[in-house]
Amino acid sequence: MIIPAFNEAGSIERVIDDIPKHLVREILVVNNDSNDGTEKIAAKAGATVLRESRKGYGYSCLKGIEYAKSKSNGEYPDIVVFLDGDYSDYPEQLGKLVEPILKDDYDLVIGSRALGNRGKGSMLPQAVLGNALATALIKWLYGVSFTDLGPFRAIKFHRLLQLDMQDKTFGWTVEMQVKAAKNGLRCYEVPVNYRKRIGISKITGTFSGTVKAGYKILWTIFKYWLI
Prior knowledge:
single chain, globular, Spore Coat Polysaccharide Biosynthesis Protein SpsA, Chain A, alpha/beta, four-stranded mixed beta sheet, three-stranded parallel beta sheet
């Protein structure tokens, strides 16, 4: 499991504690240049902690992938799960994401907040509208239906490597989904619950973050359609 984390000292321990330990081989927290106690708290809670000084969600995810690739062949993960460190997702729902993959029915499973129960204030209006627009474009351009670009997701590790992920910042999740569509991966969504995060969102919590994320998501969708 890979958990990107930037200044999540108030939430990271709760995230790690709620992960069903019998379903994971290793919990990897990638400290994305935090200036609080995120790293120390995560390590104390039992996670393996890596440092990524270049700020960006994608940078953290790529750091985690490189770590997994550095394992000997016998220790390669079969499935990689991505989970945010802000406690907005429900880690205890991990089994819902990995079960369809363990049955070998699917390659990529997205935890859809649109299909699950969202707590009051958990997603700002701009995030809801942005997800709706992005998933509509993906269906129109790529012919694959999604309802969300949710960060809680599971994917077969060898399929993840085939996607050759590149995005360093806001376009990470949508890049994975459009590449999966283009490469014929078997994609599925399961409903997951979502609550108001601990702390302030680094993306939709600011006007500039919202604009940058929206632009990057749309640019990524059209970029890979044209390639």
